[in-house]
Amino acid sequence: DLLGLPILQTTSGGRKWISLVQVAWVLQPERCCQAVTGKTWTEVHRAELEELKHKAAEGMQRTNSMIAAADWSHNSILGKVHHARDSGDPFDVTRIELLRILAKFFQAQLQLIGALTKDRQMNSIMALQNEYSFSVCLSGAADPRLPCSIR
Q: Is the CB of residue 49 less than 8 Å from the CB of residue 97?
């Protein structure tokens, strides 16, 4: 809810489901941003900076460091040289940076699944088969909106 991502469905237990595409595009923003958000990466980054500047004008705390975090995040995502930043608050980051952290978590989970099934480990494969159907795996591998590292 806080990240403003569209909810695909809500289970009877109250668990909300979102599309992996809505999170993972930040791992390759220049390639995936337009397909997922309908805007170019430059437009999304510029809009985020404008929103942070608007909040700064309203007197919100920590906004200057968040603007610096947006620039740092932009350079980090694009692989450009950037200076290390330490604001002292691990949550003092932009929405894009939070999405990037979440996307890296999902990427690490997929890498773990790959390691568990390496060399045809049948016990792991049988356990994972119940969790991830063939159609789910195939739809993820075939979705061009996902970054290459996720597919």
A: no
Q: Exposed (0-12), middle (13-18) or buried (19+): which is 30, by Cβ within 10 Å?
A: exposed
Task: Indicate the residue type of 59.
Answer: G
| Alpha-helix residue ranges (DSSP H) falling in 16-133 | 21-24, 29-37, 41-57, 63-77, 95-116, 122-131
The tokens describing 140, both together, are 């993820």
Single pTM value for the model: 0.72
**What are the pLDDT digits (tens) for 141-151?**
999 999 999 98
CA dihedral for 108, 110, 114, 115, sign (positive or negative):
positive
72-103 pLDDT, tens per residue?
566 666 655 544 454 555 555 678 888 999 99
